[in-house]
Structures are given as structure tokens and as C-alpha cells.
Fold these 2 entries.
Entry 1:
Amino acid sequence: MPNVVSKNNPYLPQMGTIREIIQETPNIKTFRIVLDDPEQMAAFRFEPGQVGQLSVFGVGESTFVINSPPTRREYLQFSVMKTGEVTRALHRLCEGDPIGVRAPLGNSFPVEALKGKDILFVGGGIGMAPLRTLLLTMVDRREEFGDITVIYGARSPQDLCYRYEFDQWRAAGVNLVLTVDREFPGWEERVGFVPTVLAEEAPSPYNRVAITCGPPIMIKFVLAGLKELGYEDDQILTTLERRMKCGIGLCGRCNIGDTYVCVDGPVFSNTQLRQMVSEL
Amino acid sequence: MEKAVFLPDTELHEALAALSADAQVWVPAGDASKPDLVRFQRYRPGLSVRLDARSLVSAKEVLFPRSEALLRFVKEKDLSVPAGHRLHVDDTRTVPPAVVFGCRPCDARGFLTFDRVFLQGPYRDPYYAERREKTTFVSLVCRDADGACFCSAVGSGPADPQGSDAQLIALPDGYVLRAITQRGAALVEKIGRGPTAEQIQAARDMLDQAGREMVGEGSLTAMDAAFRARFQDAAFWHGHIDKCLSCGLCTFVCPTCYCFTITDEARGLSGERIRSWDACMFPHFTLEASGHNPRPSKVERYRNRVGHKFSYFVSKYGQVACCGCGRCIRHCPVSVDIRAVVRDLPVQEEVHA
């Protein structure tokens, strides 16, 4: 498989250019990046859920999921919440600026194993990014999957990412349930925390896999809610985050016991999470 | 001994100078002002070579420098592109051949931990790999274990050849130098003279003696299950580690600690991406930008260090990530003893009603 992460030097980023920047929310920007070498760009392959390290030379690197789907390869899309040093530097970049990319890294969602199943996505805030790559993969291969329900929430309407795509998702047959934490003028969708809306919607666990990503407190209650609805551990997938440096399983900081989130993750089933040492 | 030479004490400097002709030669040496502060230094004439002394730090930095540039980058002003500059990134490097002369067997064996992680996947670290391929290790069969040493308890020993290309065996007036690998044989050819039958016999006797010696009590190699069973026992970890200062010294003197950080340093239009030693004992090691820290206190951090060496590494690779050199024990400012912690993992405390 052609791979941008160089076999000769996995620390060496591929050079890319920012084609487009979308201001998703007050503190989240989406970057659409094209690799400068057209051959590399054409040969780039990845699976939904895999991540990349973005480089701002002089500041550093951070890890983000590639949130565009492998079915659409005109650019690689990353969404970045302004939180630390590197993300602040990324937010200062402009369209046309050079950027370093080391990708794809990590594991991916088990797309083939999800074929024929009903799917439930439960996302909160920036946690929609890793779900988007899988959601759009399924949208582009719609007939291979059953019902697709998405429960997506944020604090307020302006904190929802990818708002400009919601109509397309619905048009593609996605049952999209949107919620915000409290009432806002003009908001006509659901109001309430994601776990509450999950309990109200109560999608049947029969032949269904739930995939959840969001802030830790949301995940905690979503996992409890899914259990309540009858979902087994191996019917629940989530993604983990850790502080990372190398991204290739060497630098020693993203481990949970003998599991390295950078190479063994970021995607884990709840069964796997339960087998790990409790150091989340 | 197929390939062996005798190196008289009086010709040691001559031999080191000869080896220096086509390689960087690293030897344990005392500082001019502090002759007993022994560390690995590049050989130069007049250096106070101390093969007799245990070094404060291992030869780890020869293959894994405290700090090294992974990449260099330059922004070249160019107003014809939208960004106003072009970025050039360069990872070229030159790695000279090197010889580590007179480390202890534990130090040479310590690199087996590095090899597993840095060479055998899932990704290969080219910086380490290139140095590894060009470095010859000559270890000194160890005859002066102290109270902190425990190499035999981790499956090694004072005459352990693993990781060494050649072995020095000290005799009263010099050393027998014996090749273990092809690379060692190539080095042996360059120095010394043919040993006498008596010297060969004396070296054999000493190797046998050292090979039988047990340094450290019991075995610490099968603690994976005990560690996992103890993971949640807060009282156990507090009891052993409350005195820890989180200074990180144990990791810096350790021949098998390989954790690192990567930082960018830039000035004006150019800069470097630098890899440096880091320590899992520091709070910032795992601190996330959100403020969340999966290992927020020294209890979790020390537990991770013990787990990494005696449980996680074992379950993943079938070997402990510890060479028993004892440096973390010898130099800890508050006398934390990792042997005691690991040995206590499976011990059931008496329950007092």
C-alpha cells in the first residue's frame, strides 16, 4: 500500500499546502490539505479513523483524525480545536500556507465488519470529526449499510461542526438527530445533553453497532446509556486520545498499559477498553 | 577462544588511539576535576580512562544522544507563492563508525530493549538504526558488583555476552580481549598481541567464575501477572513511592529508558526539530492540552515505569526492559529501590483484624 509516512524516515513529514480553511465554530477550524507531490496525493490511501500528524515547522506537531472519507480523495481534511501551542499556531495559518503531514497513522474503524449492520453514531462537539470520516464512507457506500442514525450534540448551535453538510447527510438517508445543551433563539431541533437524547431516541441494539466520540464526560454517560439500552461491549466502538509526540509507537507517552494509542488505536471497542489497565 | 588477543595495561592508550583512527571511541573516563565522576567520553590522548569504575550514566547516549536534530527546516522568502515563502525540510545526516570500549555487560545488554522497540517495528527508527549498525560494543566482564547491582535477577549476569561484540577479561597486568561477533572479530584484529596459553587459561577461569556468579537475589522476570493484580492497590503504590521526588534521575541514568520528546526550535527563518531524552516521571510527559492528565500524580507515573519494565514489555515482547545495572537504586536521592517494589508485587500482606 503506498504510504506517505516514509519507510526510510517515519519522522519526515510530507509537504502539503492548505487549500481551504473553514471556520466551523468560534474555536474550531477545518483545514483541507493537498500534498504538494501530485503522485503522492494520487497514491495516498487510508482507512476511516486513521490519523495524521500536522506540522507547523518551528512550533511542532499534533495528531488529528483525517475526517474526510477515503471515498473522497481530492484533499485531506482535518478539524482542529484551538487548545494548545500547536493548535494555536495552526489557527494562525492561512489558505496557501505550507504544512507538514505525516499520515496515515494508527488503526481504523472495522468498515468491512460493519457491512449490513444498522449504525448509531453518538458525537459531541469536536468528537464529530472521527465520526464524519466513517459516516461519509457509509453515505458514499450507502447500500452496504442498514439504518444510519446520528445523534450529534454541542453546547450551542454555533458549536456544532459541519453545519453546512447536515442537509446533505439527511438527503443521503441519514437519520440525523441534533441537540444543544439549552434553548437558543431560532433553534428548532432537540434540546438536552447527548446521553439524555440517546435515552429518548433509544435506537434498538438489534444488529446495530454504536460508535461514539466526544468529551470524556459525555462518553462516560453514553457508554452507561448504551448499556442500559442493551448494547454489548463488542457493539460499541470509540476513539481514544492521548498526548502524542512520535505517532509511531516509540516515544512512550500514549500507552495505556501495553497498548499504544498511536499505533494500536485510536479506534477501540468497549471490550478492548475493559481489558486495558484502568488509566484512562 | 577462537579470536582473542592480550592487551597489556601499558598499551591501553595505544590501542584506543589506534581504534580512534577510523571510529569515534567512547570510554568510561573521569573528569579532570572529579576523577571518580565517571561517564562515557570520546577518547583523546591524556584522558583519564577508568575501566575499573562503574560509570554514572551508561553508554546510552552513544546510540541515543541526549538531544539530536531529526530535521532541519528553512523558510526561503519567495513572493511568487501565496505563503510568501517556500519551506525546505532536510533530514540528511552522517553517522560515523563508533566503538564503545569498556562498558559493563549490563550496559551493552540494555540496548536489546532499544533494539526491540526502535528496530523491530511497527516502525523502524532510522537515526538509532544507523548508529546501531556502525557501533561496536566491547564490554568488560564485571568483577565488582555492588549492593545495587541485580543483573542476574533480570536474566543477565556479570559475564553476559548478549549485546556485546567483544569482551574484555581483566588480568593482573592487562586484558584478554575476546571476540563474540564478526564485528568484534574485526576490532580484535586491530589491537593487542597473541595471548599466551597461561593468559587464555586465566581468562577462561575468570569467565567461568563470573558466569557462575549470581548478582542480585531471586528473579524479577515473571512479574507481569503480579503487577496487573497489584495495579489498583493504591496503598501498595503509595507505600513504596510516597517519598519519590519526581526528579526523573532514574530514567536519565537508565540504560533501557528510551522515552523521548520532540520539540521544534526556530530562530528567524530556520530551525530544527529536535529529539531529546524525556522522562515518564515528569507530570508534563502525559499532560494533554485540555488539562487532562491520565497519569496525574507520581503514583501513576512510577506505577507506569515499573509496569513498562516488568509487565507491559514482558507481555508484549517476552523480555523485561531492565538490565539490572542498579543505577536507579545507586543514585536515587531518596533511596527508592525498584527491586524491592517489584519483589513485593506478588507478596500478600498479612491482614490485621
Entry 2:
Amino acid sequence: MNSSGWIQLILYVGILLAITKPLGLYLCKVLDVDGQTFLDPVVKPLERLTYKLIGVDPKEEHDWKRYATAMLLFSLVSMLFTYAILRLQAVLPFQSLFNSQKLSAVSEHLSFNTAASFTTNTNWQSYSGEGTMSYFSQMVALAIHNFASAAVGIGIAAALVRGIARHTAKTIGNFWVDLTRVTYYLLLPICIVFAVVLVSQGMIQNFKPFDTAALTEPVHAQVEKKNDKGETVKGSDGKTVMEDQVTDTQTIVQGPMASQIAIKMLGTNGGGYTNANAAQPFENPTPLSNFLQMLSIFAIPSALTYFLGRTVKNQGHGWAVWAAMFVLFFAGVMVAAHYEAAGNPNLTALGVDPADGNMEGKEVRFGIFNSALFATITTDASCGAVNSMHDSFTPLGGLVPLLNIQLGEVVFGGVGAGLYGMLIYVIIAVFIAGLMVGRTPEYLGKKIEPKDVKMASFVILILAFSILGFSAWASVSKMGAPDPLTNQLTDGTNNSGPHGFSEILYAYSSATGNNGSAFAGLTANAPWYDTTLGLATLFGRFAMIVPILALAGSLARKKLIAESAGTFPVSGPLFTSLLVGTVLLVGALTFVPALVLGPVVEHFLMHAGNWF
Amino acid sequence: MAAKTHSIFDPAIIIPAIGASFKKLNPAHMVGNPVMFVTEVGALITTVLLITGGQGASVGFLLQITLWLWFTVVFANFAEAMAEGRGKAQAETLRKAKTETKANRLRDDGTLEEVPSNNLRKDDFVLVKAGEFIPGDGEIIEGAATVDESAITGESAPVVREAGGDRSAVTGGTRVLSDVIKVRITANPGETFLDRMIGLVEGAKRQKTPNEIALTILLSALTIIFLIVLMSMKAFGIYNGVDFSITVLAALLVCLIPTTIGGLLSAIGIAGIDRLVQKNVLAMSGRAVEAAGDVDVLLLDKTGTITLGNRQAAEFMPAPGVTREAMAEAAQLASLADETPEGRSIVVLAKEKYGLRGRELNELPHATFVPFTAQTRMSGVDINGTKYRKGAAEQVKAFAGGNLPAAVQSDVDKISGLGGTPLVVASNEKVLGTIYLKDIVKGGLADRFERFRAMGIRTIMITGDNPRTAAAIAKEAGVDDFLAEATPEQKLSLIRKEQEGGHLVAMTGDGTNDAPALAQADVGVAMNTGTQAAKEAGNMVDLDSNPTKLIEVVEIGKQLLITRGALTTFSIANDVAKYFAIIPAMLLRSFPSIAPLNVMKLVSPESAILSAVIFNAIIIILLIPLALRGVKFRPLGAAKILQRNLLIYGVGGVIIPFIGIKAIDMVVNALHLA
């Protein structure tokens, strides 16, 4: 890694660390219904009005079952809302303004997949944004979820932390209050400022139809000749006739981009406005915009660890969790950057300068390190925005994002989701190792009992079940889009061998982990993939959140046990090491065989001269 | 029942255990242990494949894998059988106390009938005469007797048991030495404390503790996860054009699921109770043993636990004008015939401090001894007309003509103030000085409490003394806190207060008025000498009636939990090496270029898989002694214990199987097994 890489990393971690405490303190105010913030004069009336409109008493708290029911209902209704808009996008009013590209209705399976994906904070995109979604769909159907799914995630994390902090209590908060306050006091204000900053960097924000520009250098290509009916023309020798095609113009995407991108990153959503996501020049115009986007991914997850420490009155614990996340993040960056910089020996053999590393699928303006760093951050968190193509990473460089997702995206993680995922590992670590201090395991004064272990185990189980189960199904069935030439169903992968397998594995890991990034060689916009990937996003979100809320409820009810020298220590380097070890042992062991059959075998084959 | 430990390698236990480990293969038994049940199903599948053939690999390899999978199950069963066997041996000793006897039951009309003791029911009345065995647990309602309880406690000195008060409980199987007592039976046959304990140590009636249930849930979840992993692996293999054989997948599955802890879990639990029994403590449930590990407040009775039962002479304080030697000599003479511990301690102090030889009584033929009576509250001796007396200040004052020298009076007041007992010594009318009798703190306690403090356990001394005395003794003993002038109600409210503050409290007690506190405490150890009510209220009974043992009970509870956690950590950490052994072996034929992944340089894919499976099986056997003995307990703070155990069982758990599998691979190849 070169010095500019180190400087970039140190700067990144330094600023992240610096904002953790102030933002964490602000979160404490936001997540407390009585918390007072500097925005109160402006936002408080709006907040009160909202409660009045939806008929919520902000002072009334709910037990975990009511909290879960409200969350599920809200998610279901908002998902149906998005589904409807996508299906109706071609007939909704103001087409000239909101659908200037005259995009048709989104297909049933893609609408389901997209609605599920955005509701669950996944933002997996089986489509290309600019070619499928009208401005209205982007701004309303999708952006609403960018805010709401982020707010829901933060709310769930807060509910779990309250469960840990409280004792002999029945309630864990009010879903509607959490949703409202997080949106109004945290997400919206930051996004407004962030969007303006992004515009200053050259990001677009308009309702103009797409632009067309003349290419200075027309592109020539050989394409299959088609007749009027769109069929390929075959010559007398039976071979497809090819013809020369000249491209001399380029369509330039326009639209309300900055407003989308701010929340896309801050809410760890990751759904790109354009297909190329943060690699597209408008969507990520400058090094500064790149840096700020990366920073905004980790900002709230990092601050949530401070919120954890503050709320449970053990700041050392908050920092120990932060440190465990940092260690896993740092290791990931190092491995990814190392293998990307090392490049592909087969290309070196063909004359590519090894000093260039693996530049396939990367923006030249970002280079190796910024691509590796972005890829690690976006998969540590459940963001899924990309500024380079993960599918083109070297096998072991690509293993890092894949493993990050499979660990449950607990390395800072998605907003809220990262913290509650990590706290599940904390519970498991405390349960196993806690016995070793000679007491029945306890976490911050709460005994960890069968019910709690059951809920934590269920979360880990769902992750393995959804990722491995769906991947196994996809690997042995030909369920992808039909091959255009033979009309036979395919497995949808663009590559054969272990790399093709990695594409499938990555898709279900990303969907279950609610990440949204892809090894995009997989053609996922086919009925079967859209449906199963959509289901995986729902499993990965709700089959985890419900047991986590149950856990929060169970912890809140417990009596508090006094702390003493005999109490299991949940702060300090020892606990951090234990937590890292647990994440790696319990989390990674599940995926070792799959990772070996994918990236690891591919790595050795690549060095033996085979590539895919 | 003497505290007897059985050697781990006692053939009398091992041989029946081997038989039992095969009997336990019954799936109906195995299903209670999900991890080992899956292992058995795996073994069954490979057996079927072995018989039906057609797996491609050599029969010798399939046979060995199959055998080792079965061994894994058998070894786990053996661990459990060993623990139960040791428990049974322990129970045998307990049973000896349950001699089948005849009982003289009192009919309603007052006449006697002879019935076998196991026909007795709760609330029957029996009459037990000298020389007879007491037919069941009960309470004396009439009379007093000396009872030989050596069968239970191993203590040969007979004890007095009498109706009313705190010494009314009798245990079945003990023998009345003198007098006649009328006993109300308090337990039905099969429900006595002893019966329950026998059930627990034999494992038959053992119920899983909440912590065991929680651990079983986690282990089951891991097992299901690895099932998903292995089933998906088959599909992933198909995609990659690799056909994984079912036998190899079953082998990998068994290696990955936590068989080590799954196989040893129940053995650890049984062994914990067993260790308690070896200390002569009977626990009502496994839960009570675990609760002992969680305890962070110990309520310790001062008398008997912290101090020796009796006060002892600590200092002679002569009156003005009297030499210390003269006073010591008078004190010694006055105490020669005093057989109480206090009296003896005066003789000893005089001898040790002033070199005064303790004269035998027969050396003083003309001496007339005056014994202590409740009326005189003095004792002493008359030698050649000199009357040596020692006793309470008021009485000696009266004896000496109604005057105490001012200095002596101030000494008396000072000693009283310190919580000691002043005894004034006089010869004829001359007051010679004051003997300071004080509580003697048992040796080594302060050190022990200090270690407890490091472990986060607070000790509170309970005493009937006034606060000043209590403070002095508490300071000397090194306890953290004390409750002075304690009444049973105060004791109970102290326990409640501590529990409300989130503490878990352990205490010992023997009297009926201790019963509510014993019931309220998280761990209540009743003394076997105590009343039936106390025994019923607590969740443990100490057969030796040694209150200090509470400390050992806590250590046993902690040791049990540490052993369970250590082996779980070890079991999960082992998976790393097993992956490195088996995964390369499974892929090497299809992808030869992955050879560098075979970091252990295992000779062939077959030997690699076989070695991992063998390691997985024999590690269970190797860890049986650890499971039965428990991880050595060290009284340290939680952070230090955690660090130590994480290093040994976590990091060690990652490293050891690399070495073990490599070694087994070398042996396997040397023997040409694969």
C-alpha cells in the first residue's frame, strides 16, 4: 500500500473517530422522546403535528410485541406502496415532468424484488436505475424507503439497547416515535446539508430530460444483424450475419440525483441512481465526494456504538465494540487492498505492468486503494453502493466484501442493523466465554437465559439458512434468464467455474445481508432470481428483527445483577479480542466451505493459469 | 460416609461404564442430546452406505470412517457413563447409611407395632430405643438421646439430639446410643434427602439446569447450521463439478458439530454434583450447584464459621502490685479442674506465655476443686487454705469482699468494650487481675476472604454480638461487612436487601429460626445437625455441619461452570483445524492447485479425513478426566480468569488439533490405514 493510501486511511479513521462522540451524543437526544436538540424550534412543531396526524401518543411506550407489530405493519404497507408506484409509473400524472424518458411499467417480479429490497434497506437492484425508474419512482417510491428503512433500523437498534439498559421494565420504546424522530432530527437535516455539499462537488439535481452528447471519437462495433421482426439474420452458411455499428452519441443521465445520493449513503441504503452507482461521474464527481460518501456510510453506525455505551452507562463497552469493528474493518481493507494491488498474474504475463495492480472494473480516477477501501466499507456496512465492480476484483480481493456481508455486516454495519447484529455476537460471546469466569453468563447485569440464547441462535441460523440454502438451490437449478441464442434456461451467471459460483453466492449473501451490492455478472432480473432474492431480503431483515425485538423485550424484563470483580468484563482489549474471535469463529466457520469453493479455489486456479 | 474420591481409572467404574456406553446408543436415549444424536444418525448413514456399497472409495476407508463415527458416539456415552458410575459409587456409600431396619411404629392408641422402615409414611410416629437404628428422617418430639451419626458424617463422636430447639432433627440410618426418643417421620420413603441425592448423583433424576438448556440450544443451533453448511456443500460441489461423497460429508459434519462439548456436557454436570458429595455436601438440584457459582455475597455466622466456637484466654492483666507471673499462676491453678475450652485455654496461655507447667490434678493431693455452677458463676481450687477463684467480675468482687481495685475495674470495662469476656482472678480476698477471653478467628480466613474479594465475592459476618465487638472481629477476620445484634428477622431482611441490589446470597444455618432466611437465600446450606425445618428450607445440606464449607461449595459451583465454558470454547475453536484438514482433502483431486491449503501436509486426502475424524473421537476420551475433575479453579478476578482460560481453551483449542491431526496422520500412514 502506498503512502497516499495510508494517508487516506488515517484521515478516514481519524475523522470517523472524531465524529463518533458528538454524533453519538446527538443520537442519545434523538432517540429519547424527551431529548432536546438545537433543531427543536424548527422541527418540534412538525414532530407534534405528525403524532397528531397518525394518532400516536409519544409518551406511551410499547412492549416488544407491539413494537414489532407496528414495525411489520409499517414495512408491509410501505412495501405495497412502492410496488404500486413501480407498476403504475407509466400512467401516473405529470408524465412529462416525472417520466420524461417515457419509461414503461416495471415488471411484476422486478417490482416485488425492488419493493422488498428497498423496504429492507437492501437496495439490491436487478435493474439499471436510469433505464427503468422514472424520476417519480426514484424520488417517491424508492427515496421514501431510503429514509424509512434507515430510521426503522436505527429504531430497532435503539430498542435493543434500551432493552439492555433497562431492568424489570416491560417496554422498549415507541416505534412511531423512533421512526419520526430519527427521520426528522437525524436523517433529513444531515441529508439536506450533505446534498448541498454534493451539488457543490458537481453532482446534478434537476428534472431535465436526459442529455445527448456527440462523441469526439465514434465507437465501431460488430453486432448481429437483425431483420424487421428483430430476429437474427443467418447467412447461407448458417452463421449469423454480423454488421458494423457506429455509435457517435452518448446519452447523459439527468435528474434529481443529489437528494437521493445523500440518504443513499447516510442511510446505508446503497441503491444507485444510475446503474454504475458511485462509479458514475455525476454520482461521485470528486475525490472529496468519494471521501464524504465513505464517511457518511460509517458515520451513524459508528456513533451508535457511542450511543450504546452512553445508554448502558458503560462507555468502555461502547468503545470495545467500536474497537472490535475497527479491527475487522482494518483487516478487511488490508487484505482487499493487498490482493487488488497484487493484480492478476495472468495479465502480467500478457504484458500488463504489475505495478498497476488489478484495474479491471475500477475507475481510473479512484485507483486501487480507494476502490478497495470503498468496497470494504460498503460491505462492512450494509450499504452496497459501489465505486468499482466487485465482480472484477481478484478472487481474494473479492472474498473480502463477500465475507464482510456473510459475517452479518456487523463491522459498523448498516444503520442500526450493524449494531444489533454485533450485539447478537456479543450475547453469544458473553454466553460461551462468560461461563469461563465461573458464573452463569451475564451481560451488563442481565443473566443470559435459554430464551435469550434461543433468539440469538435463531438470528445466526437464519443468516446461514438464507444465504446457503438459496445459493445451493440456485447452483443446482437452471432458473436464470433464458439464453438468447439457445432459449434454454441458464443459471444466470456470466462466468463459469468457481467465479460463476461466487456470483450466485454473492447475490444471496448480499440479499440476505440487506447489502445490495453484487458480483454483477449474474443476470438477476429473471422471475426466479427476482423472487428468491426478494424473499432473501425479507428473511434477512424481518426474520432477524423480530427475534431481536423479542430479545430486547426479554432483556428489559430481567432483574439487574450487581457488578463486582467477579463480573464478566465487557470492555477493554480482552473483550474486544473475544468479540473479534467470536465473529470470526461463529460467523465465518459457517461460510468456509462455500468461500473455499468460490474465491479460494479461484485464487489457486488463477495462479495456476486458469481464469474465468 | 467418609469423603472418598474415586480414581478416574478405577476399573470397578470403567468396566460397567463400557457396557453402559453401548446401551446408551439407543436413539430414544440419544435424542436428548441433539449433537450426539446427529452424530449417531451420521454414523448410521455411513453404515448403510458401507453395506450397500457403491461409494467409489475403498471399503477399508469407508469402514474406518464408519467405525470412528460410531466410536465418537460411544466415547461420548462412555463419558456420561463414567460420570454416572462415579456417582453410583458415591451413591452406594450413601446407601449404606440407608440400612433396612425394623421400626416400632406407634399406633393411635399408643401401642407399638413392628413395621419395615420403608413402610413408614410422613407423620408416622416411631419409638427408637438405645441400640436401634433410626428408621427414617424425622424430628424428635419427645426425649433426648445420644446418636451415632458416623454413618452420615464420618465423625465418630456421638451427638446429642433432643426434642424442641435446634437439635431435634435425626437422620435415617443413624443409631441411638442411649435413652429413648419419640420421632415424627418427616419424609416418605424414596423422598428423603438421601434418596433425592442418590437420584442426582446417579444421573437418573438429573434435570437439565437452565444454563445447560441454554447451552444445548446454542449447540443445537450450531449443529443445524453445520447441517445446512454440509447439505449446501453438496450442491455447491455439483455446480463446480465435484462430487462429494456422502461418507466424507458425514465425516466433515461430525467433525464440525460441537461433539466435544456435546459429548461431555452431561458428564460435567454429574461430576459437579459428585464433587460436592465428596465434600459431604448434599445438593437438592444441579441448579443449586450452579447458583453457588453465581453467589457474590456470603453470609457467614461468626461463631463456628469465622471464630472458633469458644472464646480463649488471650492476655493476663494483673492488678496493681501483682506480678504477671503470680497472677498467671493463680489463674492456672483456678482453672486446672476446669474442663471447658475457656478453662483449658487459660492453662495453655499460662504455660506458653509464662512457662508455667500445667500441673496435673494428682500433683495436688490436698486440693479441693470448686466447680463452676450457674449460681456461683466462679470456679477454682482450695489449696492449703488458699482459695483461688476466677469468674465473672461481679461474683469475684463479692467473693473478694465487695471491692475491685480501680485498675481492675477499668480493665474489666475495657475488655467488655472490646467484646471480650473479662474473668477476674482472686486468691482469698486479694484480687490479682483480669483474664482477657476473646474470640479467636480461625487461621487462614483473612487470606481466603481476600481471595474472595478478588473474585468479587463480599463476605458479611452475622453475629449476636454488639456492634463494637462485631466490628473488632470483622476487622480481624477481614470480612467486608457485618450484621451485629442479628435477629433471624434482620438476617432475612438483609438477604432481601442484598437481593434487591442485584446480589446472589449464600448462607449457612441450622436453627428453625434460620429457615426463612435459608429459603430466601439463593444458596442455603443447612447443617446436618440442624433442625428438619432448616434442612427443608435450604437447598443443600452439609453432612459435616461445618459452616466454613460454604466457601468450598462456591468454588465447586464456579468450577462446574468454568469447565462447561472451557470445553465449549475448545470445541468450537477446534473447527478451524478440522477445516484445514478436511476441505483441502475433499478438493485436492478436482483442483490439484489448491495443494498449498493443505497446511498440515497431510499425506493423502483419505488419511487427512480419517485423521480429523479420529482426532474428533479421541479428544472426547482424552478430555473425560478434565470433565470429571473440573478445570482447576483459581481464585482470581473475572478478567484474569477469562484471559487465562481464553488463552488455554480458545487459542489452545485452535492450535492443539493442528498438532493432534498431524500426529494422527503420521500414525495412520505408518500403519498404512489409508
